[in-house]
Write a structure and sequence with these properties.
Helix content: 40-55%
Distance between the termini: 31 Å
CATH superfamily of the largest domain: dinb family like domain
Shape: globular
Strand content: 5-15%
Radius of gyration: 19 Å
Strand order of the largest sheet: 4-3-5-6
Number of domains: 2
Largest sheet: 4 strands, mixed
Order of helices and strands: HHHHHHEEHHEEEHHE
CATH architecture of the largest domain: Up-down Bundle
Number of strands: 6
Structural class: alpha+beta
Length: 262
């Protein structure tokens, strides 16, 4: 049985670098095919249009070369598992910045961002400290957060347009694992086992730790359902009713712990 996670797992930096580029390439291809009518359409993200969402996706990757070119961050280190909970506090700033992006030429914007990202990776050290607004994070850890942003907002874009943009396997895995580990950090313990095959298994919630045989409290779901629950795109009760989540045992109710990100 896996132990409850209190620290972020290790991620292969080379794979994460490639995953960000691969997922961005999927989004870039889809955005280039959207019509003006589709770009003007609504999303599930408040007042954002599809064009706003597309601009935000580009910015999420553009932050990589921008932060790498900035002076290194200070001593206030931000742990990877702290990042999901801190995003909600930045929502207003993110909204303001996104609305200020010139998204009149999305293909041109995406081409420039992709080129800048690849160029910036060439000399980037995994341990370089990047100066985020709420603390300094290593470059390697920050790249994992980019997989979350890309996967979550790719799903938003699919929901808004029906584009059926594919998910890079490594990006989806990193996103799933980080959000699963964030749950275990938020509610440490060993009473409940959360399974998100094929990418993650964590134990969480205070109570008796299970050591052998079938755990008495088990939650199981697929990666995209988990990601939607963890980011507030859907609700626990709705996914239980739709049989997208199975929960067995008297402690296997995560409703009060979700979402993990705003």
């Amino acid at each position: 049985m896996p132990p409850a996670r209190k620290r972020a797992r290790k991620y292969d930096s080379a794979r994460t670098r490639a995953a960000v580029l691969a997922q961005f390439a999927h989004v870039r291809e889809a955005v280039a095919a959207l019509t003006p009518e589709q770009l003007a359409g609504p999303t599930r993200l408040g007042e954002w249009t599809v064009r706003d969402l597309a601009a935000h996706l580009a910015w999420m990757v553009e932050t990589v070369p921008q932060l790498l070119a900035s002076p290194e961050g200070g001593k206030d280190r931000l742990a990877l598992l702290d990042w999901p909970a801190m995003t909600a506090g930045a929502s207003e700033r993110i909204d303001t910045h996104t609305r200020g992006i010139d998204a009149s030429d999305l293909p041109g914007l995406y081409a420039r961002v992709a080129d800048d990202y690849e160029e910036a990776l060439a000399g980037a050290a995994d341990e370089q400290l990047l100066p985020l607004s709420f603390g300094a994070m290593t470059f390697a850890d920050f790249l994992v957060t980019r997989t979350v942003e890309l996967v979550v907002h790719t799903d938003d874009l699919n929901a808004a347009t029906g584009a059926d943009i594919p998910f890079d396997r490594q990006a989806l895995a990193a996103c799933t694992r980080l959000l699963a580990d964030a749950l275990a950090a938020k509610a440490p313990g060993g009473a409940v086992e959360v399974r998100i095959p094929p990418y993650a298994v964590v134990q969480c919630v205070e109570g008796p730790r299970h050591t052998r045989g079938t755990p008495p409290n088990v939650v199981e779901t697929d990666p995209l359902t988990w990601i939607r629950l963890a980011t507030g795109r859907t609700e626990w009760a709705a996914e239980l009713d739709a049989a997208h989540v199975s929960a067995s045992g008297e402690r296997a109710d995560l409703e009060d712990l979700l979402p993990l990100m705003g």
